[in-house]
Backbone:
């Protein structure tokens, strides 16, 4: 049975999906989506559903779609619990090699460009050793299974995950090579 959700306002879609219906990624295919929403339970559920729908339409496997939907919901709850920003932002970006999902309290409409995201250590300190300006630790770092926490020096927060696209293709299974 369906469940109705009351939303006083619709989230704003800042970017749109390009080449969304593809059975597998190609050099020309790319999905890029940014959605801002409020701080309610309904908005968190909506962000999760948007992430799942976008990835399913792009050809991701059912398992990855569910995992990314869960990641979006958990990340949204974390960001809302640790930020006072009036809105949160979901970003889904898939190219020919990776799928990246982030939730932050940073608005993409800022005129000065994306912030410098810094990794956060287990003791909640910013990790500055070896961080190069203009490098996003989520997309430049090593693969990590799970959500990664980043902050900016001015207090913005982001939780995100990145996975290889080959793990996201519908119906495709990766097998270890015997050679």
Residues:
């Amino acid at each position: 049975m369906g469940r109705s959700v009351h939303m006083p306002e619709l989230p704003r879609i800042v970017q749109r999906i390009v080449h969304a219906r593809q059975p597998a990624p190609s050099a020309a295919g790319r999905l890029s989506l940014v959605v801002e929403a409020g701080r309610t339970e309904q908005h968190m559920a909506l962000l999760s559903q948007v992430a799942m729908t976008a990835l399913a339409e792009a050809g991701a496997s059912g398992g990855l779609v569910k995992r990314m939907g869960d990641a979006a919901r958990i990340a949204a709850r974390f960001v809302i619990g640790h930020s006072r920003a009036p809105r949160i932002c979901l970003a889904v970006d898939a190219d020919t090699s990776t799928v990246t999902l982030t939730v932050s309290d940073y608005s993409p409409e800022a005129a000065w460009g994306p912030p410098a995201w810094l990794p956060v250590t287990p003791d909640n300190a910013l990790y500055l050793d070896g961080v190069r300006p203009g490098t996003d630790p989520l997309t430049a770092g090593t693969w990590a299974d799970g959500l990664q926490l980043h902050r900016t020096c001015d207090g913005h927060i982001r939780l995100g995950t990145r996975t290889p696209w080959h793990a996201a293709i519908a119906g495709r299974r990766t097998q270890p090579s015997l050679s």
About this structure: DSSP finds three helices and seven strands in the chain. Residues 62-82 form the longest helix (21 residues).
